[in-house]
Amino acid sequence: MITTTGLTKVYRSRGREVTALDGVDLHVREGEVYGVIGQSGAGKSSLIRCVNLLERPTSGTVTVDGQDLTALAGRGPRAGRELRRARSRIGMVFQHFNLLSTRTVQDNVELPLEILGTSGKERSRKALELLDLVGLADKAKAYPAQLSGGQKQRVGIARALAGDPKVLLSDEATSALDPETTRSILGLLRDLNRQLGLTVLLITHEMDVVKSICDSAALMEKGRIVESGTVGDLLATPGSELASALFPVGGEASGDDRTVVDVTFHGDSATQPVISQLSRTYNIDISILGAAIDTVGGLQVGRMRIELPGRYEDNVVPIGFLREQGLQIDVVDRKEPVLVKEGAK
Amino acid sequence: MTWSEMQPLLEAAGTETLVMVGWSSLITVVGGLPLGVLLVLTGKGGLLQNTVVNKVIGQVVNIGRSMPFIILMVALMGFTRWVTGTTIGSEAAIVPLAIGGIPFFARLVETAVREVDHGLVEAVQAMGGNTWTIVRKVLVPEALPSLIASTTTTVIALIGYSAMAGTVGGGGLGDLALRYGYQRFQTDLMWVTVAVLAVVISLIQFAGDYAARALHHRGARSGPGPKLRLLRAEEPAAADVGKVA
After folding, report:
1. Residue A339 lies inside a defined structural domain of this protein
2. N or C: which end of chain A has fewer CB within 10 A?
3. Segments of chain B with pLDDT less than 70
């Protein structure tokens, strides 16, 4: 649904060049919720703004719903008619909502329809229908200043849906909201994704967002996508930074001559009593440092961090045994990998 | 001088001021608003970024603003004659008043429009809106409270300028005060005129403030509504009038 190939964006200011995007290939399938996560400055904001060409990519192409937007854009800095028409079919929601303060909620939702040239009667019918969809039917005549943050974002979402888009871009839509409101907005996005078959591309710095609604995710660092795939695949990828950040299991080794192993269960392997088998087969004592079961991207996943006596070299055989059981095994280095962590701004 | 003597003089002068300031304000707003918006649009990072156009307009505005009004009036005589067919009287004064007011207002508009959150512009761009749509539906409506305050300031400045219209026979309250107070030493009429001007300016300021606040507070959570505050000092206008005069 959304494909970018070799997308680069270089900002030039006072002779200095800053590469925000460095060859990004992104592929978002129709009907999925795709999350791009990364620290601030990783280029995710540039990426999402390049998708509807609010930001002109320096090179590379952007295709949305089979339409090559970079070809529509032309050369000048201004958006031509074709590009504007394409944009009207791509919804966008913003971190700071960007609602017009001088318009009522209903008039804000009607704005995209005014741009599309919809008649007055049809506009208000559609706006009220969308407000109903986002649960704000009673606030149609209110002004944005009278609404809470979560309500404002609901208006933002209703507005983004006014042009019947197939794609919704979400630029840190929940980053200015408290955790509870974040959950309700994410729930709304999820519902819209299911009910309307809406493809959602969202960028965020909060792992919880990816965890709760994304089907696929990509990790961005320094303008590049370093990992991407469906959440299920990522969890099954040994050493995946995203997977361990999505589903962290804590616990430090108790001494130098210990080996720490992360065991990930999914599907059938979760029902096997592997740990006691391991203990009996090799006659070793196993400490469990941490364990959790969670639902990530709609999948039940279990993860356990265990500690085996002896160095890694002494434990090659038991680890091989675990691998044979169809479990995903990650041997944890003494130095912890740097997880994607960034406090809410 | 008795009140019955003053009254007809004040009425005539008041009408002249009203005509001069009314028309020139209208022309100033009509001319200055697009100019100010254009300054923002063509400015750095603007939607129609164009350094050459921006510099040219900016310079024209600067020259217009640096010209003392009384000199502007003389310098524009040829143009005034071409437009109105005469260089004397209230009608003739409207032309230099408007031309003096346009750059003044344009700068105020520029500042007001620049204050509009760029995120709103971006949101409308993302909806597929073109530049004209953004000007019409975002920049002007969102800047409206400031624009109204700017208009108030401009109208008051124009009342100040209009005192000099007497030089070209334009009449008006300022001219009345000058003639009777300075040339005939009838200071009583001068003070009455000044009082009338003070009341008129206060009323304009009050109306402008009220309108701006009514728009600005629209929808605010606990907006008590515009507060009534008479006689609010409007420093920028006063300073400007002083400088230009």
Report:
1. no
2. C
3. 217-245
Q: Does A86 touch chain B (CB under 8 A)?
A: yes
Q: Is residue A342 a part of any domain in this protein? A: no
Q: Measure the CA–CA gap between B136 and A331, rounded to whole angstroms.
A: 61
Yes or no, beta carbons of A111 and B137 under 8 Å apart: yes
**Using a CB-CB distance cutoff of 8 angstroms, which residues of chain B are in contact with residue A90?**
126
A contacts of B141 (beta carbons < 8 Å): 100, 102-103
**Among the listed residues A42, A3, A8, the one whose alpha carbon sits nearest the alpha carbon of residue A22:** A8
How crowded is the C-beta side of A310, counted as CA atoms within 13 Å?
12
Three-state secondary structure call for residue A177: coil
ipTM above 0.95, yes or no: no
Alpha-carbon distance of B99 to B116, in angstroms, equals 27
> Is A96 part of the contact surface with chain B (CB cutoff 8 Å)?
yes
Residue corresponding to tokens 């079919």: A89
Q: Do A54 and B125 touch (CB under 8 A)?
A: yes
Q: What is the mean pLDDT of chain A?
A: 85
CATH node for B3-244: 1.10.3720.10
Residue A176 lies inside a defined structural domain of this protein: yes
CB A78 within 8 A of CB A56: no
Tell me: do A176 and A319 sit in the same domain: no
Interchain proximity A146–B219, CB inside 8 Å: yes
Judge whether A217 and A228 are in contact, CB under 8 Å: yes
- CATH number for the domain spanning A21: value is 3.40.50.300
Q: How many CA atoms lie within 13 A of A72 on its CB side?
A: 19
Contacts of B218 in chain A (CB under 8 A): 102, 143
Gyration radius (Cα) of chain A, Å: 24
According to DSSP, the β-strands at A299-309 and A287-296 are antiparallel
Nearest-CB residue to A98 (from B122, B137, B144): B122
Q: How many domains does chain A have?
A: 2
Q: Do A156 and A258 fall within a single domain? A: no
pLDDT band at A293 (very low <50, low <70, confident <90, very high): confident
Tell me: do A63 and A137 sit in the same domain.
yes
Listed in sequence order, the residues at least 6 apart from A213 whose beta carbon sits closer than 8 Å to its beta carbon are: A33, A35, A186, A189, A190, A193, A200
pLDDT category of residue A290 using cuts at 50, 70 and 90: confident
Interface of B with A in 139-158 (CB under 8 A): 141-142, 144
Distance CA B242, CA B141 (A): 32
8 Å CB contact between A140 and A106: yes
Q: Which residue bears the tokens 């007497």? A: B166
For residue A323, the tally of other CB atoms under 10 A from its CB is 13
The C-alpha of A21 sits at a distance from chain B's nearest C-alpha, in angstroms, of: 20
Closest-CA residue of chain A to B121: A98
